[in-house]
């Protein structure tokens, strides 16, 4: 294992594929949950599967972990076919949420020992493995407490530990931080980084661009059952622009002036969200752009309710990839010209 790679971002070397999925199809009645979905995950990396609610993330994970049968296409996980060699696949993967039905009454240690016994480790090996995992997931201090008293982040770490009992080659994490407070989220991120440093390949689904950016060396964006982009986090952010300048004007009548001011400093077209009296544009030289727009609007006597820089979100990625904008910028420009 390449121990020089501690941040889970991969080292750019090609190691072979942990997941190879081609043309996956899954229908539920008329609904196409997956519609020709492709995914390639390199061994020893965290790969992000990024998409909004209903995009098909969980369906993909369930197919790849052999819980759901596919209607078309083919997939190999950890070197085995998910349909013809499903038992082999199951022996090589971990999945949060499936085996990790943590018992609230048992302590953290008892939970992990119980899972070890479920996997036929024997009492002594199960106790040893529980201790290792408690250390690895920083749960030693809470080891003898009932899991029902754990915080959200600790609970999620216990879930992760339980899914790692057999040190799987590939671990599927389906939205591991959804619903967690920011601090717990950071804890889970640290844990995931540690897993990859130990050689596990992680497929992580998320609705947060920031999460994919922090953890993944590569990201596949999924929309309506199809992969619409596959890139590094930096590549994706370049698609949408590194930062966004965001201006909200007090009076709706001033929106065209704000569009004009932002368009002078931003890359490509600014985006106007009419109902929010908001204009946003991708900017490269962040501070210069902010300063210039603020000065222009002040000189023009435009009352600004809010102005700031923010990092791109999944919404921004979708906007650029699918071309769906909330309000035509062209219309605003016509108003400025009139
Ligand atoms: N068991 C099911 N029965 C019917 N429709 C389903 C089922 N599972 C998922 N779907 C539908 O398939 C689509 C993709 O769902 P899902 O994979 O859960 O998306 P995500 O995890 O990205 O939110 C959604 O439209 C969802 O309603
Ligand atoms: Mg889901």
UniProtKB/TrEMBL annotation:
Domain ABC transporter: 19-249
EC annotation from Swiss-Prot or TrEMBL: 7.6.2.2
UniProtKB keywords: Antibiotic resistance, ATP-binding, Cell membrane, Membrane, Nucleotide-binding, Translocase, Transport
Enzyme class: translocase
Cell membrane found in the keyword field: yes
MF terms in GO: ABC-type xenobiotic transporter activity; ATP binding; ATP hydrolysis activity
GO biological process per UniProt: daunorubicin transport; doxorubicin transport; response to antibiotic
Cellular compartments per GO CC: plasma membrane
SMART domains, per database record: AAA
Membrane topology value: Peripheral membrane protein
Superkingdom, taxonomy of origin: Bacteria
Cellular compartments annotated: Cell membrane
UniProt similarity note: Belongs to the ABC transporter superfamily. Drug exporter-1 (DrugE1) (TC 3.A.1.105) family.
PANTHER family named in the record: ABC TRANSPORTER ATP-BINDING PROTEIN, DOXORUBICIN RESISTANCE ATP-BINDING PROTEIN DRRA
Name of the molecule in the record: ABC-type xenobiotic transporter
Species name: Streptomyces venezuelae
């Amino acid at each position: 294992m390449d121990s020089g790679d501690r941040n889970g971002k991969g080292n750019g070397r090609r190691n072979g594929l942990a997941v190879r999925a081609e043309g996956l199809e899954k229908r539920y009645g008329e609904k196409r949950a997956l519609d020709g979905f492709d995914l390639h995950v390199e061994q020893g990396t965290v790969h992000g599967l990024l998409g909004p609610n209903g995009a098909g993330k969980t369906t993909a994970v369930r197919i790849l972990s052999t819980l759901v049968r596919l209607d078309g296409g083919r997939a190999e996980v950890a070197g085995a076919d998910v349909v013809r060699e499903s038992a082999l696949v199951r022996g090589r993967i971990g999945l949060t949420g499936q085996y990790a039905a943590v018992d609230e009454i048992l302590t953290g240690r008892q939970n992990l020992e119980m899972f070890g016994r479920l996997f036929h480790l024997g009492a002594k090996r199960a106790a040893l493995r529980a201790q290792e995992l408690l250390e690895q997931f920083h749960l030693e201090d809470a080891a003898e407490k009932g899991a029902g008293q754990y915080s959200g982040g600790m609970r999620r770490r216990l879930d992760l530990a339980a899914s790692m009992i057999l040190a799987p080659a590939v671990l599927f994490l389906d939205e591991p931080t959804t619903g967690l407070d920011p601090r717990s989220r950071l804890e889970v991120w640290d844990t995931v980084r540690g897993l990859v440093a130990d050689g596990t390949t992680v497929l992580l689904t998320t609705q947060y661009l920031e999460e994919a950016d922090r953890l993944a060396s590569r990201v596949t964006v999924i929309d309506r059952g199809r992969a619409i982009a596959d890139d590094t986090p930096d590549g994706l952010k370049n698609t949408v622009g590194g930062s966004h300048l965001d201006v909200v004007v007090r009076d709706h009548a001033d929106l065209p002036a704000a569009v004009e001011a932002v368009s002078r400093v931003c890359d490509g077209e600014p985006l106007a969200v009419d109902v929010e009296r908001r204009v946003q544009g991708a900017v490269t030289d962040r501070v210069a752009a902010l300063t210039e727009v603020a000065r222009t609007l002040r000189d023009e006597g435009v009352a600004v309710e809010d102005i700031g820089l923010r990092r791109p979100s999944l919404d921004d990625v979708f906007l650029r990839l699918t071309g769906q904008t909330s309000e035509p910028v062209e219309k605003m420009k016509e108003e400025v010209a009139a």
